[in-house]
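Appendix C: a fully annotated inverse folding record. The material below is reproduced so that readers can follow the format used throughout the book. The structure is listed first as tokens, followed by the designed sequence.
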């Protein structure tokens, strides 16, 4: 360690070294400023990335891209509305329907008698087997844990031991796609229930014992169906629409453009296929009404969100750049007021993405999608503003409502694309262009194309990530060099002070001798 000496020569060595180092630190300050600009630029890109992800995912795909967002039809139900829900699609034909429900669709199912209460999915098969809600002295032995269980479901064999948790049993069965079955556990009764994934009469569920103890034995055996241990078969839903019987293998289906979801029967009968059904009936009446306001609100919201995105992108591209305002060094900040630092930094951050190629390409591609459909858009009241407005859209609600009244499906297809041709609507095309921009940002900046988080971590292997690594390496090397130079200066001044001190001692000795 170098001793820093002041006093013998009368020189302020610390000040001199500091002055000499100030000049040498200029390249380091510039390097730190370049690194700061890179970090600010990445943050600005991440802001854009967040807006693009939000527009693509939360707006175009999840909000405006779903059929229900622009559906101009509305189903109105009356009567026994607890038995059925109805939602009109864009293809609803307006036919009034009176619906009676005689039977709900079910899945082929087999269930155990039940191991009783006090168990959870965290319990083991051994615990289930010995479980007795009326006893407090239950002890799982090693033999209980080692007992082997197996079950064949639709040709797939599953094997477990007593130590296996019920949650693992359920996950294993449900995770086997070939078995085409779903297992569940009722913690109230301790029942293991296995059902076919396919509902209705076509849903198959073949259950056979394996080579080991039948899995159901851990849950006190199998409940009987029709007097034997067997699978209860699934049945089709049976409804009468305007007195015409219809069978469906699911409780959710489409009739006359109305999606119906059956919740309960409208009466009880032992002969559900008799027409007309016997017994008291409380049917549901479904009527279709035009509801263009939903589509108007969706298109209006899209126009606002599209314009907001263009405003952000165009603002970044045209933002004024103050070239004389470089990032402040720590030393510069110490000589300034906080308000002045804030003002200076704002100008230093301004214009970092001015005329940026990625943003200009993004704006061009988005406007290109709109331009290619401007004829169809104009016919429904959506137009572009003046050239100086940067491609913003304008909406004539009266014209849009008229277009929806004349051809609601055509308007919907323009934005969402027809069902027969995927990814052809304006929303899909815009989402594709945004996705391409996000890919470019991921490559250059290292942003996350699926996240709107403004604090998300950048990927290091991007172009800018590698550049940052380079800056850090150069800064580390330069700091080492500067520290070595400072040490060298102090050594040199220390040696000079020592020599001058020795000379002064010799001079004093000679002067004393001559006296």
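Designed amino acids, in order:
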């Amino acid at each position: 360690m170098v001793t820093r000496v002041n006093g013998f020569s009368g020189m302020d060595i610390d000040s001199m070294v500091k002055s000499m180092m100030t000049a040498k630190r200029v390249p380091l300050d510039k390097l730190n400023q370049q690194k700061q600009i890179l970090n600010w630029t990445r943050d600005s890109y991440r802001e854009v990335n967040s807006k693009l992800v939000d527009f693509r995912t939360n707006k175009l795909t999840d909000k405006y891209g779903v059929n229900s967002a622009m559906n101009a039809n509305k189903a109105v139900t009356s009567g026994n509305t607890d038995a059925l829900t109805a939602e009109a699609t864009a293809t609803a034909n307006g036919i009034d329907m009176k619906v009676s429900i005689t039977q709900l669709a079910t899945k082929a199912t087999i269930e155990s008698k039940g191991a009783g209460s006090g168990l959870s999915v965290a319990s083991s098969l051994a615990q289930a087997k010995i479980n007795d809600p009326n006893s407090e002295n239950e002890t799982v032995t090693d033999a209980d844990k080692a007992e082997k269980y197996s079950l064949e479901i639709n040709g797939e064999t599953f094997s477990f031991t007593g130590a296996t948790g019920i949650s693992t049993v359920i996950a294993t069965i449900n995770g086997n796609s070939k078995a085409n079955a779903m297992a569940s556990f009722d913690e109230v009764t301790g029942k293991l229930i296995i059902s076919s994934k396919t509902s209705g009469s076509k849903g198959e569920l073949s259950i056979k014992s394996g080579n080991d103890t039948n899995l159901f034995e851990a849950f006190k055996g199998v409940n009987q169906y029709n007097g034997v241990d067997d699978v209860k078969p699934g049945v089709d839903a049976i409804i009468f629409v305007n007195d015409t019987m219809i069978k469906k293998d699911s409780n959710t289906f489409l009739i006359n453009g109305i999606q119906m979801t059956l919740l309960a029967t409208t009466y009880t009968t032992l002969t559900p296929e008799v027409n007309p059904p016997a017994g008291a009936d409380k049917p549901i009446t479904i009527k279709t009404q035009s509801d263009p306001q939903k589509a108007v609100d969706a298109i209006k919201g899209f126009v606002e969100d599209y314009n907001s995105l263009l405003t952000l992108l165009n603002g970044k591209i045209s933002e004024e750049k103050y070239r004389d305002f470089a990032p402040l060094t720590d030393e510069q900040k110490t000589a300034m007021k906080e308000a002045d630092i804030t003002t200076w930094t704002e100008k230093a951050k301004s214009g970092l993405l001015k005329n940026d190629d990625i943003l200009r390409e993004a704006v061009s591609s988005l406007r290109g999608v709109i331009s290619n459909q401007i004829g169809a858009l104009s016919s429904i009241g959506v137009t572009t503003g003046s050239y100086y407005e940067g491609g913003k859209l304008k909406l004539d609600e009266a014209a849009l409502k008229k277009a929806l009244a004349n051809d609601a499906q055509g308007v919907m297809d323009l934005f969402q694309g027809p069902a027969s041709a995927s990814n052809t609507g304006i929303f899909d095309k815009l989402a594709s262009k945004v996705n391409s921009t996000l890919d470019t940002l991921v490559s250059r900046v290292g942003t996350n194309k699926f996240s709107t988080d403004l604090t998300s971590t950048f990927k290091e292997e991007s172009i800018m990530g590698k550049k940052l690594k380079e800056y850090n390496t150069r800064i580390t090397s330069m700091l080492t060099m500067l520290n070595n130079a400072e040490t060298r200066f102090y050594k040199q001044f220390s040696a000079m002070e020592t020599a001058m001190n020795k000379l002064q001692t010799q001079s004093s000795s000679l002067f004393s001798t001559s006296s």
